[in-house]
Amino acid sequence: xxxxxxxxxxxxxxxxxxxxxFAASMSSMTAVPAVGTPATLCETGLxxxxxxxxxxARACCGQALAIDAENPDAQHLMGLxxxxxxxxxxxxxxxxxxxxxxxKPEFLAxxxxxxxxxGRFAEALNVFDNxxxxxxDDAELWRQHGDTLVQLARLDQALSSYQHTxxxxxxHQDALCNSGIVLxxxxxxxxxxARLDLCDGLFPNHAPTVQARAWVLFNLKRFEESAAExxxxxxxxxxxxxxxxxxGLSLRRLGKDEEALVWFEKAVALQPRRVDxxxxxxxxxxxxxxxxxxxxxxxxxKSLRLSDLVTEWNVALAQLLTGDFEAGWRGHHTRLKLxxxxxxxxxxxxxxxxxxxxxxxxxxxxxxxxxxxIHFVRYVPLLAARGARVLLVVQDPLLRLMSPLSGxxxxxxxxxxxxxxxxDLHCPVSSLPLAFKTxxxxxxxxxxxxxxxxxxxxxxxxxxxGPRTRLRVGLVWxxxxxxxxxxxxxxxxxxxCRILDVDATFVSLQKAPRPDDAAVLRExxxxxxxxxxxxxxxxxxxxxxxxxxxxxxxxSVAHLAGALGRPTWILLPWTPDYRWLLDRADSPxxxxxxxxxxxxxxDYDSVxxxxxxxxxxxxxxxxxxxxxxxxxxxxxx
Length: 637
What we know:
It is built from 30 helices and 10 strands. It has helices at 23-26, 38-50, 54-67, 72-84, 88-101, 105-117, 121-134, 139-151, 155-168, 173-185, 189-202, 207-219, 223-236, 241-253, 257-270, 275-287, 291-303, 309-321, 325-332, 370-376, 380-385, 399-402, 432-435, 455-465, 486-489, 493-496, 515-523, 537-545, 556-563, 605-621, and strands at 361-365, 389-394, 408-413, 425-428, 471-476, 504-508, 527-529, 549-553, 568-572, 594-597. It has a 6-stranded parallel sheet with strand order 7-6-5-8-9-10, sandwiched between helices. It has a 4-stranded parallel sheet with strand order 3-2-1-4. Helix 12 (207-219) runs parallel beside helix 14 (241-253). The two termini are 30 Å apart.
């Protein structure tokens, strides 16, 4: 999978109820008019505190303490007032004094809540464990117990505590909302949305619940619903920067970058130093092709010390996409520091082109997706030409294809790095352009550079396709569904079918079609599907060799066909992967490849209309050749 621009979010909504920690202490008390005794003053003060009248609550507390400075209820009330004012040390001191006088369960609960608010989670859990033994039927205590376990990252146990709360009080608002958030954290998003739906039905317009629903819907890839809930959350809590940022992310997934930009800017206006929102604004500008603003924003973030690895990575992609390879390859190396990086920690020094490799053994290892590996192994013969002995480590599905690659002395799979021969240096395969100081005019584009599949496999596939009476066209319409840009780069098969009225033989190269596409494929008698026998990339390469043209979205098959020197037409979104650059119908990486790009309208219908017109031209001039080496121009011998 190609790395793409990274969008960021604080992601999970915060748990609800933390600032209402004293509710358990007050919920069973009813205010009565103050008549001058500490007990009645404390009860009245608690009612004032419940209702948000803090000066009046403090006045009652002061009067009670003036009458009896050691009254535990008054000490407890003072602790709650200080806790609300976020004076945690003083709050704890007052609550401890109250407990020393009268260890009531509600005092212990407040002590646990104060520890929780103060970030002393392990101590808070111990207090709640002991308090629950005294009051096992207190739903609020179980909720606070769950909140504390969340802070300790003990999510399964937290969920159990919330369930205890709901067993005691099925309509407990915070437990419903917080358990939905925990289910999301546990990646049980279908259960999470069901729990949040229940909470929303019982307590309409509860802003934290609506915000959580929006984020879970985003993670379920239900982006339209997520955006609608995000707008609703913003109406309920317009000053919530998380809501603005996450709504922008939903709109970005829907391809509505102009709208998304507005929401990212709102998030930044609310929190001017919020790095994730600034990075997301940069991403939106990138997809709007406003690159001058991308670079200006990145410079401003750097000057304010707000840039991070994500910023560097996104700027590097913008530099590469716009042809600034010198700066772009340097920034591209940042990918190895990102949390998503999968490059092993090899013990020997990394080589980035600075030292002579003649006589050295260098390990070149895959570090991104299958397509990236196919794309960048073109540098391996150049390394060998410098006198290096090259050990190549590739993803397991590529092993048989890559083993005979020119310049490779030993090829190993990424699944087994324990038996590698000794080596002096190592280099990630995607850093080879940096090591070779590649510029637009120095791209190594000697095509083909992959070894030809075995002639026996080519012949076997040719026989299965039958007589070559019509143009043979390979089709790939979707890539990795988990790719961040899958919505823009993959095409439903039903949409692609608009080119099938051309007089040609259409052959599916699409592995693991999605359910909707698989249903369409079963309906179509005009697409030959032999993919069950495409067991690895050698088989796919052999089949591609038998075709006249491959029409594909941006996937590993596009690189495979291009690296084999086969005629390849790629269908590209308005903002493509960096290696396809902008505003050109060809690729400097793969001479002869044709790029069919979306316009600013970002629809594939017009792209496919152009493809169909060009395909008709090819079909009209196609003549069935006899089976010979000349039928496969450009293949290595």
